[in-house]
Design a protein that fits this description.
Blueprint (H helix, E strand, L loop, with lengths): L1 E7 L4 E7 L4 E9 L7 E6 L4 E5 L5 H12 L15 E6 L10 E2 L2 H9 L8 H14 L5 E5 L9 H4 L5 H7 L8 H15 L7 E7 L3 E7 L2 E5 L20 H10 L4 H10 L2 H6 L5 H9 L3 H25 L4 E5 H6 L1 H8 L11 H5 L5 E2 L8 E4 L4 H13 L4
Parallel strand pairs: 1-6, 6-8, 9-12, 12-14
Antiparallel strand pairs: 1-2, 2-3, 3-4, 4-5, 7-8, 9-10, 10-11, 13-14
Helix pairs in contact: 1-3, 6-15, 10-11, 11-13
The structure holds adenosine-5'-diphosphate.
């Protein structure tokens, strides 16, 4: 089955055209700066050939029109006719408590997605725009919503209830939801394959460390706790997001700096984390290079980030009792040997022993734990698009 996988953000749409039979992407691309000056669409095919389209892209609908045009372009495209696409799989950030699995989009589901907008005002409206555009541009083609939150709906109440009045959960749905579910799901299943075990028999901790970061405790294949909460702001220190912070401290900042809730939201999500602490960059590569040159604020940002990560790994080891595998993924998790090493310093006694040479370099997907490490440690490149494509196929075939 050919599935167009779309990840619609505020000003960009990332996409892949997936062939589920071949388990590979025929094309991948991104429409950037939608609604802004200098909009551009670029696409790479299987052979790595790059095609671009520059021009005004006023909204998501037009971006998808351009994407379709480039996919079927006689010279630079990868398919002859858009009718070859069997279905469209959409990443949707928040599915609330309603969606514990992926869902075929009809009018009723679309209304339910709209009802979730209040829970994720920064993300869901753009995801919905992508779905609406596909429904109008490709009538009759099935659209499937795949949720970042779905994998975490197995968390017990003890993990998702906040220490605030319970009535606020009942009234406004204020609880911990968790995100990055497709990534945590994918790498846990990949690790199971590498370990040649049944998922029900093992416990894992998965660390997705990219621009956004989260860590998940997985018991017998099910998420039992994760570091992101009601929003993706909670938990680990991220590129531009704060992670855990004393809410009373933020209320104090709002009073002293005269910030309204919108400004405070921007401060926590865009100006905090690695960029906020370092004052230099949200990009880990840049911080590693600055720190190596002696920049103390860059080093501090890395230290705060890795110390927070270490605390979460230790906490989730406690939550799980025993951990069979610890997995690192995402741009930082896959590539930064420094972050992995710093996060695991002193955790030998909890069962995590790195093989220093394997941690330093090797294949992207590899075992990096020492032979006598009680818990296996892996780096595994994530593939959220693959999960979305296969989920879409299963929903269309009535198997999910
Ligand atoms: P996103 O969450 O936007 O998908 P990625 O998963 O691509 O982001 O992660 C981006 C982060 O990964 C950036 O901080 C980048 O610096 C970091 N990164 C990528 N390659 C390396 C590397 N070789 N060493 C350290 N950090 C890296």
């Amino acid at each position: 089955m050919k599935v167009l996988v779309l990840n619609s953000g505020s000003s960009s749409i990332k996409y892949q055209l997936f062939d589920t039979d071949k388990q590979s992407a025929l094309a991948r691309g991104i429409a950037e700066r939608i609604g802004l000056r200098g909009a551009m669409l670029s696409q790479t095919d299987e052979k790595g050939e790059r095609a671009t389209l520059a021009g005004e892209i006023i909204d998501h609908q037009q971006a998808i029109q351009y994407i379709i045009a480039l996919l079927i372009d006689p010279d630079r495209g990868v398919i002859k006719d858009i009718q070859e696409v069997d279905a469209i799989g959409h990443r949707v950030v928040h599915g609330g408590e309603k969606f514990s699995k992926s869902a075929a989009v009809n009018d009723e589901i679309l209304n339910e997605l709209r009802a979730c907008v209040d829970l994720a005002p920064l993300h869901n409206p753009h995801n919905i725009k992508g779905i609406e555009a596909c429904r109008s541009l490709l009538p009759g083609k099935p659209n499937v919503a795949v949720f970042d939150t779905a994998f975490h709906l197995t968390m017990p109440k003890s993990a998702y209830i906040y220490g605030i009045p319970y009535i606020l959960y009942k009234r406004h749905g204020v609880r911990r939801y968790g995100f990055h579910g497709t990534s945590h799901y994918y790498v846990s299943r990949r690790a199971r394959d590498l370990m040649e075990v049944d998922i029900e028999d093992v416990n894992m901790i998965t660390c997705h460390l990219g621009n956004g970061s989260s860590i998940t405790a997985i018991q017998g294949g099910k998420s039992i706790d994760t570091s992101m909460g009601f929003t993706p702001t909670e938990g680990l220190i991220m590129g531009t997001r704060s992670g855990d912070v004393d809410t009373a401290a933020m209320l104090h900042v709002m009073r002293r700096e005269d910030l309204d809730s919108r400004e405070a939201t921007t401060l926590l999500n865009k100006h905090s984390g690695l960029v906020g602490i370092s004052g230099i960059s949200s990009d880990m590569r840049e911080l590693e290079s600055e720190a190596a040159d002696g920049n103390t604020r860059a080093l501090l940002a890395i230290d705060v980030m890795t110390y927070r990560l270490k605390k979460y790994i230790a906490a989730y080891t406690g939550a799980l009792g025993k951990v069979d595998a610890l997995i690192f993924t995402g741009g930082i998790g896959e590539n930064s040997s420094l972050v992995r090493e710093k996060a695991l310093v002193g955790l030998d006694n909890l069962g995590f022993k790195l093989d220093t040479a394997a941690n330093e370099k090797g294949e992207p997907e590899r075992l990096i734990s020492a032979a006598d490490s009680p818990s296996k440690i892996y780096t595994i490149p994530t593939n959220e698009e693959l999960v979305i494509a296969f989920d879409t196929e299963r929903v269309v075939n009535g198997e999910l």
